Amino acid sequence: MTVNWIGLWTMVRREIQRLWRVPIQAVVAPLISALLFIFIFGFVVGGRISSIGGFRYLEFVLPGVVMMNVVSASFLQATSQIYFQRFQKSIEEILVSPLSYVEMIGGAVSIVILRSVVTALGILVIGALFGAVHLHSLPEFLFWTIFVSMIFGFLGIIVALWAKTFEQLNVLMVFFIQPLSMVGGVFNTVSMLPKWLRWLAYANPLFYFNNGLRHSMIGFSEAPAVIGVSLTLGLAAVLGGIVWRLYAVGYGLRE
Amino acid sequence: MTPALEISHLRKVYRSGTVAVEDVSLTVQPGDFFGFLGPNGAGKSTTIHCITGISNPTSGSIKIFGIDAVADYRNARKLVGLSPQDFNVDQFATGRNIIDWMGGYFGMPKALRRERTAMLIERFDLVPHANKPFRELSGGLKRRVILARALINDPKLLVLDEPTAGVDVELRMDLWRYLSELNRDGTTILLTSHYLEEIERLCRTIAIVAKGKIVRHGPKEDFFTEPGGLERAYLAATGKTADHAAVAAR
Fold first, then answer.
1. Among residues A152, A123, A107, A113, which one has the least CA distance to residue A27?
2. What is the arrangement of strands in the sheet containing B80-83, beginning at the earlier edge strand?
């Protein structure tokens, strides 16, 4: 059966209109947060650090700031989109339509990716104002932005299908994603950590995402690309499979 | 002729263990105006949810114009329009967007969507309200938006779950006229309602469901062979007290 492109585009269109109703939350907040990170870590703290791997501290930190915002934008977009629809029962509009489960998921994840890419580009523009933006490889940059968005989009959908309250939507973000994000090599190299603590960085998936994006921007890497790429593709495939299964059985969607 | 809707031994048990539909089998012929009656909690809405994809049947089969509503759900859903009991929309969106988006989900091209959305907005007297957020509309206007949305894809089977609940007499009469026209033009309609007058006036076939089972089913005329007509037949079929039935018979 052919893909219902009009249906997919309608899902994206509808969600863009919803985001348009909350521009401060959707667009302005991550950019202000990024601006503060760039200012404090790039100038206040960074001014006291000579260089890392031959790069200015701001240049080193910027990819991490982009990745942190990509992660939170994609997770928040997915959770708010799906939970909001469940809460208002407007998800039923999708369920009664002739969209396939893959199309339903594709529509939801497309807007997640779009929001993350827009957020990432916005931060790059801010970074460019501070003269800190390099783009070593655009395809690599897009790979990391898109696939990491997908991973956290899928995770967000799973949480939104499971959650019974607004409070539960934040559990994963507050207790796992944000802490792992902070210690995932955003502000420091692995070699700056004590030797006994380095395993923590290598065991943290977010380290590979930060490392990959950093390589795409400034060409600096601390781990073999094959590990990061395999991990990312593997996680996207596994989480995508779980989301498809949840849609197929109607978990959190159909009574 | 292939039935418009064929439900065979439908059973729905919720995760909590509640049996919402025990065993429902019914056939709706193409072009019929079918009334689906029953008290609150009898299983009417759950049956409708299973037909339209909002609920998963636990067992049994549902065919829409011969197409399996579970195994071949995409093709089956193309033929159905649903006006649910609840206002299941983005409350902050405008009526126009709500109608247009549903057309989009059904894969309708922009020009066709625009044409049908404009026609439905006009038909349901929504012109002055079409660009207002749904949550700011009155109950009657909200109901009109929901009905217009159900018709955007020009469905062959229209499923209406208490479409006139909470609407004024004028809209109800207008809606009855419109539904009769639609049915005359060939749309099969499945209607649930607590207004017996509505069922009596519009439907040609009636089924009564109680405790998740069809307890009576047949042509409308069959319900009027006894004193008390549909009301008495309904109360008797749903096991209501003799007092209720006696009042209905007066």
1. A123
2. B67-68, B59-64, B5-13, B19-28, B213-219, B205-210, B33-37, B188-192, B157-161, B80-83
Pairing of strands B80-83, B157-161: parallel
Residue B245: count other Cβ atoms within 10 Å of its Cβ.
16
pLDDT at residue A58, as a whole number: 87
Inter-chain CB proximity B107 and A98 less than 8 Å: yes
Q: Do the Cβ atoms of B14 and A255 come within 8 Å?
A: yes
Task: Estimate to the nearest angstrom the gap between the alpha carbon of B30 and the chain centroid.
Answer: 15
pLDDT 10s digits, B114-130: 999 999 999 999 999 99
Q: What phi and psi, each to the nearest 5 degrees, are found at residue B133?
A: -60, 140
Nearest CA in chain A to B135: A88
- Reported as a single tens digit per residue, the pLDDT across B65-110 is 999 999 999 999 999 999 999 999 999 999 999 999 999 999 999 9
- Taking the C-alpha atoms of residue A183 and residue A203, their distance in angstroms, rounded to an integer, is 11
Round to the nearest angstrom and report the end-to-end CA distance of chain A. Answer: 27
What's the ipTM? 0.90
Question: Which residues touch B50 (CB under 8 Å, ≥6 apart)?
Answer: B10, B12, B21, B56, B57, B62, B69
Quote the CA–CA distance of A158 and A154 in Å, as a whole number.
6
Q: What does the alpha-carbon distance between residue B220 and residue A243 come to, in Å, rounded to a whole number?
A: 46
- Interchain contact A98–B (C-beta under 8 A): yes
**For residue B63, which phi and psi values (nearest 5 degrees)?**
-120, 135
Q: A252 to chain B, minimum CA–CA distance in Å?
A: 11
Given a cut of 60, whether residue B247 has pLDDT beyond it is: no
CA-CA distance, B247 to B250, in Å (whole number)? 5
Question: Distance (Å, rounded) from C-alpha A157 to C-alpha A108?
Answer: 9
The model's pTM: 0.90
Express each pLDDT in A25-51 by its tens digit. Answer: 888 888 898 888 888 877 788 778 878
Cβ <8 Å between B75 and A98: yes
Rg from Cα positions in chain A: 19
Please report the pLDDT score of residue A200 as a whole number: 86
Strand partners, B48: none
- Per-residue pLDDT at A65: 92
Separation between Cα atoms, residue B128 and residue A205, nearest integer Å: 54
Query: How many angstroms away from the CA of B135 is the closest CA of chain A?
Result: 12
- Please give the average per-residue pLDDT across A94-108, as a whole number: 96
